[in-house]
Amino acid sequence: MRSNGHARDARRDELADFLRNRRASVQPDEVGLPNGGRRRTPGLRREEVAQLAGVGTTWYTWLEQGRDVRASLDVLEAIAKALRLTPAERGHLILLGRGEQAPPLTATAEKVSPTVKRLIKNLGANPACLLGRRNDLLASNRAYEVVFGDPERVAKPYRNNLWLTFMDPARRELYASNWERGARLAVARFRADSAKHIGDPAFEELIAALNEASPEFREWWKRHEVAGTGEGRKNLKHPVAGNLVFEHAVFRPAGAPEQRLALFSPLPDDDTPAKLAQLLGD
């Protein structure tokens, strides 16, 4: 019995050291916290990890002190997410915290708000689409479909904006004037988004597929460039209408902040509104 008790003590000490080490390696701005002010220690504070994981600061402190507290699997999963642990680190955390192997990671299906879906459909001559957490095309309107192509005509596993950007020849033609700049920026944005989903099988599958299929993606992915989403201008070369010019902005629905609503507004340049009306049959 003493040996079992000694093993438990050693495992708690190892867990405490592991948590302290990983906490010190995460910067506040990586998890959406302000990075201003003077910090006596590198990385996150204990109370910040507790806040991100949704647990009490005192309880988390005890965990880092190697006290005899038993964490549930859900709590350890929350701590792993708060500390941005890799799949291997997540497994190590759960093994130390519970003495058992971690269950496999599973992807959860995304839901589309019916209200957002109706909003997109009712935007008329303004192309719009809803992108999921890994850039899957979840919803679009007819204006989007006549300009960028109908996602419903793409096999579901490939109904992904990032995949189409690199692997669909029609998309390359559409973005002919600035495809490389736009595609590289798309990789940087995806890199930023994927950091929140390390170990997610759906993300890993997409990254592996693009690394294998696209030399450009493979090269740019290795650069670890990151970027956010915002506003911009798109100059397109449509196979039927010719040159089209849009300004666009990206918003995150409050009810699903990992999704992105992309809205496009036709500019007067190159008679874009009239050309779009023709494409729509108006």
Quick recap of the structure?
The protein has 282 residues and is an alpha+beta fold. It has 13 helices and five strands.
Protein topology:
Layout: H1 2-25, H2 46-53, H3 57-64, H4 73-82, H5 87-98, H6 114-121, E1 128-131, E2 137-140, H7 142-148, H8 161-167, H9 169-174, H10 179-194, H11 201-213, H12 215-221, E3 231-238, E4 242-251, E5 260-266, H13 272-280
Antiparallel strand pairs: 1-2, 1-5, 3-4, 4-5
What does this protein look like?
This protein is of the alpha+beta class and 282 residues long. The protein is built from 13 helices and 5 strands. The chain has helices spanning 2-25, 46-53, 57-64, 73-82, 87-98, 114-121, 142-148, 161-167, 169-174, 179-194, 201-213, 215-221, 272-280; strands at 128-131, 137-140, 231-238, 242-251, 260-266. The protein has a 5-stranded antiparallel beta sheet with strand order 2-1-5-4-3, with helices on both faces. A hairpin with a 3-residue loop joins β3 and β4. α4 runs antiparallel to α5 (87-98). The longest helix is centred in the first third of the chain and has 24 residues, at 2-25. The termini are far apart. The model has no long low-confidence stretch (mean pLDDT 90).
Radius of gyration: 23 Å
Number of strands: 5
Biggest sheet strand line-up: 2-1-5-4-3
H/E topology pattern: HHHHHHEEHHHHHHEEEH
Shape: elongated
Helix content: 40-55%
Mean of pLDDT: 90
Strand content: 5-15%
Supply the number of helical segments.
Answer: 13
Termini separation? 82 Å
Which structural category fits the helices and strands? alpha+beta
The main β sheet shows up as: 5 strands, antiparallel
Uncertain parts? none
